[in-house]
UniProtKB/TrEMBL annotation:
<keyword id="KW-0460">Magnesium</keyword>
<keyword id="KW-0479">Metal-binding</keyword>
<dbReference type="Pfam" id="PF02696">
    <property type="entry name" value="SelO"/>
</dbReference>
<keyword id="KW-0067">ATP-binding</keyword>
<dbReference type="GO" id="GO:0005524">
    <property type="term" value="F:ATP binding"/>
</dbReference>
<dbReference type="InterPro" id="IPR003846">
    <property type="entry name" value="SelO"/>
</dbReference>
<feature type="region of interest" description="Disordered">
    <location>
        <begin position="1"/>
        <end position="24"/>
    </location>
</feature>
<comment type="similarity">
    <text>Belongs to the SELO family.</text>
</comment>
<protein>
    <recommendedName>
        <fullName>Selenoprotein O</fullName>
    </recommendedName>
</protein>
<keyword id="KW-0547">Nucleotide-binding</keyword>
<dbReference type="GO" id="GO:0046872">
    <property type="term" value="F:metal ion binding"/>
</dbReference>
<dbReference type="GO" id="GO:0016779">
    <property type="term" value="F:nucleotidyltransferase activity"/>
</dbReference>
<keyword id="KW-0548">Nucleotidyltransferase</keyword>
<keyword id="KW-0808">Transferase</keyword>
Length: 481
């Protein structure tokens, strides 16, 4: 009922057709204090031409969001908006929701915003794809929160940019709701992630083949307000890559090491200030310390994913955050039955991004980041850091987290790792539900009457697969002939 009511609530007169209305003062969003450091620190392409094109010599291209018909709010996250100094709810809740729908759809621009699209490249499924960039997301600017933190605002699904290629720059309601919910769920699970402030849908429609079965349908255009310290990613540093040995593709800013230096200065100075301060007089040492820190953050992030059964689905280098956040929620999923080879992305035919491959793939992606930092960080230094730090940090954090999930918090024993492995193997052989079994274990007390143990075991077994389900799951893949 709440969802239907939100769908029916109009956010005022639509701004359609034409460009978004100009920056508008007053109202709830006048509290936003924009300070767009990224655009002052990094080169910006001056053209506002949104036609697909190469964008050389720049990290951003100026764009304008494409308006939607009759935008209206589907959901908002009060905790996420509070980061920006925006208070949701209260006696003016309806007016604030209408304002959010109008501005966070891209139909109007908040005062102080400077819409732009970020240029980056990426290795997709192991192959260098050349220029990619924000094909459906638009940087609005950076807001100073009430505690002084800087937050980048991004509208995902706000229309065509120079990086849209053959796509339409839009996202639809079903995928936007998934991203909104998972962003906030991951945060409240304690996992580093981008945040989602609002989800705004509309009467504008695009055609999508939902099940890739040749039956396309019209779906509502929807925009998610994403919030993070930065959306710069590993692939942002790949815009300098010369022609790839295998694909022949290259970055749009080959031979522009001056921009690579600018990017390192900006990223380290803004998001790793303690490293900048400690190594201000030696750029190689500074860059090595930065690479060591992002290596450790990435290892800890993947360990967190593995401990909750989260599968990202598209771990390309352009989907790896330069500050160690979960970013770009696409065909993600959470495991039900424990299967180490679980694949959540239907397009991942080889299982490159399967659940058990995530630690290995993220290490591979760090290797590509290391290549992209040359010559500002010699490869022999970054490769040594990667080998010394990544696996050890992942294993340490993973075991610490699994000990907590199992209640092994008073003593840390060598056999704990074996216990975890045997539990997971048992889950795999019995088709145990990854989340529900840990949930049940958390309810078991060592002081429980021994006579109740049998009841508890029955509850555990209820979360395992039936004999028929196991027969199907372990059916040989080879032709029996």
């Amino acid at each position: 009922r709440v969802f239907r009511a939100a769908m029916q609530r109009s956010a005022g007169p639509p701004s359609w057709p034409g460009s978004p209305e100009g920056a508008d003062g007053g109202g709830w969003l006048s509290a936003l204090r924009f300070d767009n450091l990224a655009l002052r620190s990094l080169p910006v392409d001056p053209s506002e031409d949104s036609a697909p094109r190469a964008v050389p010599g720049a990290c951003f291209a100026r764009v304008r969001p494409t308006p939607l018909r009759n935008p209206r709010l589907v959901a908002l996250s009060a905790p996420a908006l509070a980061l920006l100094g925006l208070e949701a709810g209260g006696p003016e809740a309806e007016q604030r929701e209408a304002e959010a729908a109008l501005y966070f759809s891209g139909n109007r621009l908040p005062p102080g915003s400077e819409p732009a699209a970020h240029c980056y490249c990426g290795h997709q499924f192991g192959s260098f794809a050349g220029q990619l960039g924000d094909g459906a997301a638009i940087y609005l600017g950076e807001v100073r929160g009430p505690r002084g933190a800087r937050w980048e605002l991004q509208l995902k699904g706000a229309g065509i940019t120079p990086f849209s290629r053959q796509a339409d720059g839009r996202k639809v309601l079903r995928s936007s709701i998934r991203e909104f919910l998972c962003s906030e769920a991951m945060f409240h699970l304690g996992i580093p992630t981008t945040r989602a402030g609002t989800c705004v849908t509309s009467d504008s429609e695009v055609v999508r083949d939902i099940f890739y079965d040749g039956n396309p349908k019209k779906e509502r255009c929807t925009v998610v307000l994403r919030i993070a310290p930065t959306f710069i990613r590993f692939g942002s540093f790949e815009i300098f890559k010369p022609p790839d040995e295998y694909t022949g593709r290259k970055g749009p800013s080959v031979n522009r090491n001056d921009i690579r230096i600018q990017m390192l200065d900006y990223v380290i100075g803004t998001f790793y200030p303690e490293i900048q301060e400690a190594h201000a007089d030696n750029s190689i040492q500074r860059n090595a310390a930065f690479f060591k820190e992002i290596t450790k953050r990435t290892a800890r992030l993947v360990a967190e994913w593995q401990c909750v059964g989260f599968c990202h689905g598209v771990l390309n280098t352009d989907n790896m955050s330069i500050v160690g956040l979960t970013i770009d929620y696409g065909p993600f999923g959470f495991m039900d039955r424990y299967d180490p080879e679980h694949i959540c992305n239907g397009s991942d035919n080889t299982g490159r991004y399967a659940y058990n491959k995530q630690p290995e793939i993220c290490k591979w992606n760090l290797g590509k980041l290391a290549e992209a930092l040359v010559p500002e960080l010699p490869l022999e230094i970054s490769e040594l850091i990667l080998e010394e730090e990544y696996d050890a940090e992942f294993e340490k954090h993973y075991l610490q987290k699994m000990r907590k999930k199992l209640g092994l918090i008073q003593l840390e024993l060598e056999e704990d790792s074996k216990l975890v492995s045997e539990l997971l193997e048992t889950m795999h052989l019995t088709g145990g539900d990854f989340t529900n079994i840990f949930y049940l274990l958390s309810s078991f007390s060592v002081d429980t009457d021994p006579s109740r143990l049998e009841d508890f075991l029955e509850k555990l077994m209820s979360q395992c697969a039936s004999v028929e389900e196991l027969r199907v799951a372990f059916k040989p893949q080879m032709d029996p002939r």
